[in-house]
Amino acid sequence: MLKIFWGMRQASRGKKFGNEIADSMAISRRLFHSAIEEGGMGMHLILLASMKDQGKSVIEAREAMLPFLENGLLALEQRFGPQAAINEAKLAVFDLNNASDEVGMLSINSMQQTKYYHKLRDEKAKNSSVPTSNAAVSIMLFLLRTARTLGNKVWVDLDLVTEQAGVSFGQINIECMSLEESGLVEFDVMEGVRVTDEGLYIARKLKDWLEWSEKDNHETASHGKGRDDENKTLQKPMFSLWNVVLYLFMASAILKMVAHFVRG
After folding, report:
1. Total structural domains in the chain?
2. pTM
3. Domain end (from 97, 116, 150)
């Protein structure tokens, strides 16, 4: 009887803690619990209560739940088809999974930006649809990340694009209209924006070129450091005055020991 009472109490506490996690993500509480179970965490209410007892914060518990939540949402979508609540929850999970990532040009230094811009201009000469502005590139890179999680058929809210791509709200409409004219996105003021198949191809190339510019500069810096270390080694004197004094002192001590041994 006591075990049953304890189990019911833990389940209640776990559900309350889970509700706090769902609220922190601004998603449906019911959907959160269903997705966690569907994602492979059986008896999740008891486990949530245990995490609460261990002193885990909402944020710490949320991080631990994300893989199960993501798997569960995909399973629910496959079972019941696309649902607005599921899409919103998937966006929330996507946002949290990438919260520490930097988007677009924010992740590279000025030297890498220069190299990247030169590459974009060269590529634009071959394909006029390649975007070259910082804002347009950041939008395309963010839409690429979104498409990897949700596919490219889901409309992405403009407020989310503005926040994650680092583009001002006044500029987002202009950039999206320009990208739409290039055939890279579909844009609707009410619905939002979504990347086209051609846009996905260009966005992947933008990502590849960005990684190329970062890698190339890292290698240059590494080679430069190697040359500096080599020069320092060559310039370093073989014997310093302190070494000479130390060697003379040791030699004198050894000679004294030998003389004392001979006399004794």
Report:
1. 2
2. 0.47
3. 97
